[in-house]
């Protein structure tokens, strides 16, 4: 997808992990995350780490310091992102360790 996804397999103590670095587009995110999900499923890894620039937020209250609305709209990630997270049982490790931090 236009060089927006980099996948690397690492092996540590006989455990394979798929590292995925993404730079999500600002537009057509629904399609981008749906395609990403399908690519990951085809590779069939038990251990996956997704990182990068999602170009969106998961939680509007926690992911913004100011609650004031600005000229820029706050971009919540699309449903396809949340479906992927749910179906693959992925976790936001930073958020789990920093539940109330902004």
Automatic annotation (TrEMBL):
InterPro entries xrefs: Endo/exonu/phosph_ase_sf
Domain of life: Eukaryota
The name this protein goes by in its record: Endonuclease/exonuclease/phosphatase domain-containing protein
Organism encoding this protein: Micrurus carvalhoi
């Amino acid at each position: 997808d236009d060089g927006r996804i980099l996948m690397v397999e690492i092996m540590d103590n006989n455990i394979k992990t798929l590292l995925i670095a993404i730079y999500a587009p600002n537009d057509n995110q629904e399609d981008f995350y749906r395609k990403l999900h399908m690519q990951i499923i085809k590779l069939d890894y038990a251990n996956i780490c997704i990182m990068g620039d999602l170009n969106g937020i998961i939680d509007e209250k926690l992911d913004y310091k100011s609650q004031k609305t600005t000229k820029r709209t706050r971009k919540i990630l699309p449903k396809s992102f949340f479906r992927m997270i749910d179906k693959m049982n992925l976790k936001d490790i930073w958020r789990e360790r920093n539940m109330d931090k902004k």
